[in-house]
Amino acid sequence: MKTKYWFWFWKTFLGPSRLRKRFVQTFLFAGLIPLVLMGAVSFYLVRLTHQQDVSALEQNISNQVATEIKRNLDVAGSILELRAIFDNFAPIAFDQQSLILEDVFRALPPLVEASFICTTPLHCSVGVETSRWVRKGNEAQPELELRNRINDPQFAAVRGSEGRSFGEPIKTADGKFVIPFAAPVFNKNSEVIAILAAWLDLSGLVQDIVANANLGQTGYVYAVMTDGTIVAHRDPSLVGETIKNTPIRQALDLNDNAPVTQNTYESLTGVSVSGSLSTVPDTALAVVAEWPKTETQALIDTIILQILTFAFISFFLLAIISSWMALKLIEPIAQLRIGTSIIGGGNFDYQVHINTGDELEDLGKNLNRMAQNLKGLEEVNKLRLRTELLSESLRKEREVSKLKDQFITTVSHQFNTPLSVINWSLDTLRDPKSTQEQIKETTEVIYKSQRDIAAIVADLLTLSEIGFRYQKDRVKQIDIAALADKVLEEFQDALKIKKITAQVTRSGDTIAEVNEFTMRKVIENLVDNAIAYSNEGGVVTISIEGAGTNLNLNVSDHGIGIPKDEQPLIFQQFFRAKNAIAKKNVGTGLGLFITKSIVAGHGGKISFTSSENQGTMFFVTIPKKATIEQTPPVKPELKKS
Fold it and tell me: Which residue ranges does the record assign to the HAMP domain (predicted)?
């Protein structure tokens, strides 16, 4: 008993149980939905927060670098802002200008060029430099060539104002980027007596700040002009390159001091980055901070890996818990399944034992009671079955007896007529007074009666061979039109006697897979009836047509027809219509029954149309391809005229 229990335990719980799988799938599905949602929401929030943090950090770095650049420029500008100690409206003396410029170059290493420009028309030409110094190498020295800078943008920007001005960076002949600077020179009365113009080397003011700015491990900062030209970069090879068709360039065009709205774009080096832009106040410079996605995404990838690891562990634990819960839930159900299977197999003495204290225990008790009730019903059913079998046996015996009586009566009657005619004819032959003409006529009568007896015997032999439900066998491809020609040749004598015209028409493919012997019987029976029940001088037509996968065989005559009230019975065994008996006294009534049985055995159908005293047409349809199947009982089938 224990071995049997453990076998069922293994098969039910540890083996392939559909219900257990369904329980586990349900538990897993119910547990995975919140797990997946929680993971998805966590990932979304972490990614969103991380993107915001990256953008904020990029913006802070770019703002910080822009502030430092502005501070350096302000320091340089404060050094270049001069105020004379006299109150005369006159330029500073030339020798003093040279001393001032020399001190300025010494105090400001990024200074490339500096000059005083005249603004007092009574003492000099307005807009013309009065003194100019240039840094060559590490030394600053005066330049003898003085230029007219009346149209200089910086001179125009500062003249008439009281503030300094930083211009748009320009690239010098030696490839350096400098930022123009101009500031008014005031006397003691705050009157502008000159303008100090200068070029500041951006590499000295900006490059160190940009190179030392750190953004993670791979992030970087660079300075650009408003037209997108890079003036300072950690990678010196990129200085002078121009930014085109990037979100940074769009932000520069809009002068938008904000993070770039597009999350990812390609930098000049083809690296996928995110970036931020900050403009340097009061200048034509901006600072760009870019951070490659490979580094910023690394944290997200780590978080995703942690989420997936947590999800996998949770799924594994959930699967174990779900399997254990399903095992506990399915155990009583499995016992019920085993019980119903055993009881359903006929063992009504089997009892189910479930102690769960719930509806399943009640169901087990009900199953046990049902088994006891079924055990009582089994005896009743056995008795009823024996009674039904006995009744069915008696019914079949009565049917066989009735069929036998009908068969004996029909056959006896059919044999009696020709035998009686033969007997009368023999009496005539034995009469010595019979003339030669009478003897000849009597011999013909005996010969005809002999043929009638042979036809009856042939029908009986055919019925004996094919049975009441013919099933097609020994099929082969036969040309039905050629077979009809052969059958028609056998009836030439009968056609000549009644002066009947017979013809065979064909169309399409007339080859079908049939049993040649039985299909010949079909054509013979239909042609024999058509000739037998046609009037002298009539016409019999046989048409064969290949229609797709079927073959149609039609036989028509213009004879006596079939009475309408007897048409539903025409295919029954031993049945003959009244007008047929009157036309031809001898016949078994088996021909059409045999014909329908053969046609049905070939998977086909037979029907007819008929009008009394006008003729009959039979329609036979069979499939060209052989189909072996159980033949249904033969039932009469009619077509409306």
Answer: 327-379
Per-residue pLDDT at 637 exceeds 50 = no
Which of 2, 23, 21 has the alpha carbon at shortest distance from 329? 23
pTM summary value: 0.47
467-623 adopts what CATH topology? Heat Shock Protein 90 (3.30.565)
What is the tens place of the pLDDT at every residue in 62-110? 899 999 988 988 888 888 887 666 666 677 888 888 888 888 898 888 8
Fold classification of 12-317 (topology level): Beta-Lactamase (3.30.450)
Cα torsion through 593, 595, 598, 602, rounded to 10: -130
Which residues, in sequence order, are bridge partners of residue 512? 478
363-390 in b/e form (b: 16+ CB < 10 A) is: bbeebbeebeeeeeeeeeeeeeeeeeee
Determine the Cα–Cα distance for residues 317 and 313; give it in Å rounded to an integer. 6
In the chain the first and final C-alpha atoms are separated, in Å, by 76
Hey, what long-range contacts does 434-442 have (CB within 8 A, 24 or more apart)? none
Sketch the domain layout of the chain as residue ranges. Answer: 12-317, 467-623
Residue whose token pair is 């995703």: 304
- Sign, CA dihedral 404-405-410-413, equals positive
| Count of Cβ atoms closer than 10 Å to residue 489 Cβ | 9
DSSP annotation of 169 reads -
Q: Which stretch of DSSP H or E encloses residue 181?
A: strand 177-186
Based on C-alpha coordinates, what's the Rg of the chain? 60
Identify whether the C-beta of residue 135 lies closer than 8 Å to the C-beta of residue 143: no
Pick the closest to residue 498 from 531, 536, 540 (CA basis): 536
